[in-house]
């Protein structure tokens, strides 16, 4: 029951800020619609989910209060925010900080640069499996080979995200990410929307998340990708050191 409830809350979070339908949340959580409706109704009674003006399910006020209580131990956004803001200012693109949560990455921060055309693939709270989007690819690439293979064996990413997320194609991008140091998403989620990501590491040198940039394809040519990738690596290294400080 706890696992199903957690999956349902994550499904609702993924639909923010528009709100999730009962059927949509059930599908994402892998539950039957009647089961999802029963659980959502119980969560609503506890203030853990809410209903939007159009009836969609949203995260509830009680989650905010619980999150505030937990923030002192787990919140890394205060440390990461200046790095994300600096990336957005220097590149004029949209910059992000995502953290690893199990076999997913969760976007915690977004800062938009001054360039008027923006990508809206990422927003705070959105989740992707490892290997999907530049942040997820950056994290996956710096896991041990055995963990990469195990993840790709369990996750049928091609079914959800297309043939370019099949095992062979992903392993090629993992190898390229390790070679370059940064990951590239060449418009695989939304055509024309490119992304670059660089992993951030914990004290054990395991990837805990990633800094990333997104923008339109015309601004991510070969030379500029090298410049942006080098900048991402510098900022990711600096953030890694900052997060390790007491």
UniProtKB/TrEMBL annotation:
GO biological process: negative regulation of DNA-templated transcription
IclR-ED domain ranges (all copies): 62-245
SMART domains on file: HTH_ICLR (SM00346)
Record PROSITE patterns: HTH_ICLR (PS51077), ICLR_ED (PS51078)
GO molecular function: DNA binding; DNA-binding transcription factor activity
The keyword Transcription regulation appears for this protein: yes
Membrane spanning stretches: none
InterPro entries: GAF-like_dom_sf, HTH_MetabolicPath_Reg, Tscrpt_reg_IclR_C, Tscrpt_reg_IclR_N, WH-like_DNA-bd_sf, WH_DNA-bd_sf
Keyword tags: DNA-binding, Transcription, Transcription regulation
Domain HTH iclR-type per the UniProt entry, residue ranges: 1-61
Pfam family, one: HTH_IclR
PANTHER family registered for this protein in UniProt: HELIX-TURN-HELIX TRANSCRIPTIONAL REGULATOR, ICLR FAMILY, TRANSCRIPTIONAL REGULATORY PROTEIN
Protein name, as recorded: IclR family transcriptional regulator
Organism from which the protein derives: Nocardioides anomalus
């Amino acid at each position: 029951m706890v696992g199903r409830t957690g999956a349902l809350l994550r499904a609702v979070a993924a639909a923010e800020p528009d709100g999730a339908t009962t059927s949509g949340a059930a599908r994402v959580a892998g539950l039957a619609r009647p089961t999802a409706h029963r659980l959502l109704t119980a969560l609503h009674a506890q203030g853990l989910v809410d209903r939007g003006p159009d009836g969609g399910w949203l995260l509830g006020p009680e989650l905010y209060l619980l999150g505030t209580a937990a923030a002192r131990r787990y919140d890394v956004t205060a440390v990461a925010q200046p790095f994300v803001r600096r990336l957005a200012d220097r590149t004029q693109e949209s910059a992000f900080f995502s953290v690893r949560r199990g076999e997913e990455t969760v976007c915690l921060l977004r800062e938009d640069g001054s360039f008027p055309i923006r990508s809206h693939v990422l927003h705070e709270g959105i989740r992707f499996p490892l290997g999907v989007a530049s942040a997820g690819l950056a994290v996956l690439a710096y896991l041990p080979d055995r963990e990469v293979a195990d993840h790709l064996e369990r996750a049928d990413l091609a079914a959800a995200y297309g043939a370019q997320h099949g095992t062979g194609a992903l392993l090629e991008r993992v190898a390229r990410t390790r070679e370059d140091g940064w990951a590239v998403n060449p418009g695989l989620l939304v055509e024309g929307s490119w992304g670059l990501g660089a992993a951030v590491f914990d004290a054990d040198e395991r990837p805990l998340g990633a800094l990333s940039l997104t923008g339109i394809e015309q601004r991510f040519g070969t030379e500029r990708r090298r410049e942006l990738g080098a900048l991402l690596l510098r900022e990711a290294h600096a953030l890694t050191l900052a997060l390790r400080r007491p």
